[in-house]
Amino acid sequence: MTTLKDVLDNIGGAALIAGCIVLRPLVRRRYSRWGATDAEVKATLPGDERVPRSLVTTDAAITIKAKAADIWPWIAQLGQERGGMYSYELLENLIGCKMRGTDRVHPEWEMKVGDLMRMGPPGYPVDQVIALERGHWLLMAGADLKTGLVAPLPQPGQTDYVNATWLLYLDEQPDGTTRLISRNRLDYAPRTLAFKLIWEVFTDPIGCVMARKMLLTIKRLVEAKA
Fold first, then answer.
1. I want to staple 105 with a disulfide (CB 3.0 to 4.6 A). Which of 29, 73, 82, 134 is the partner?
2. Looking at the whole model, is its pTM more than 0.90?
3. Cβ atoms within 10 A of the Cβ of 121, count?
4. Range of the domain at 26
């Protein structure tokens, strides 16, 4: 059931997205590394090698008072056909994503290598899980909207491609907490004004705001169950 709190939260999310788009030249450095330390931003993480010349890189991170093993089931059930995106669900459904979140873990939803992580019904953006270390990290890559398959990596001289990865990384700390890091890397060609508008001016700030909300929601859900 949608509450007034949910509505106000999503209105706030919409305002934050609009602000980040309009003020992108001034605020990108801040929103593109929300919560991440200098060390985390500079760290080499799984999947970085797939996008060696990333044009758009974003990092977001949060501390969760739980072991990595307790957080893993939540990130492993991401997707429109599973537990949703833990983000601004009303905004997602406003554009037809048909999200339905959950407040509990469903073991049968755990993703494996080769599975698709949909951000909406068929025809909407979709990622494919290309590698993982269970309980530690999950790596996804942008997939073809029709086939759900990840295209081969761009070859030298190739002039038409989109190469994108999304990593969710659990870094357990000595004090029993865990840092959850979300990293996106993107390279694309041709580097036209139209593609710059799509990938950098709009998709980048929207994705960062939604990822921030996702991390906050996962933290709330995990710590409530701890």
1. 73
2. yes
3. 12
4. 4-225
Structure-model confidence comparison of residues 146 and 213, the more confident one: 213
| Structure-block tokens of residue 15 | 């305002």
Coil, strand, or helix at residue 11? helix
Regarding beta strands 178-189 and 116-118, do their DSSP bridges make them parallel or antiparallel, or are they unpaired?
Answer: unpaired
Residue matched to tokens 């406003």: 94
In this structure, what CATH number is given to the domain that contains residue 95?
Answer: 3.30.530.20
Does 190 have pLDDT greater than 90? yes
Contact assessment for residue 193 and residue 90, using Cβ atoms and an 8 Å cutoff: no
Q: 194 Cβ partners below 8 Å, 6+ apart?
A: none
| Strand ranges across the sheet with 161-172 | 56-64, 178-189, 161-172, 137-142, 126-133, 116-118
Residues composing the chain: 226
* Domain count across the chain: 1
- Of the chain, the percentage scoring pLDDT greater than 90 comes to 97
Collapsed DSSP state (helix, strand, coil) of residue 130: strand
Supply the pLDDT for residue 1: 77
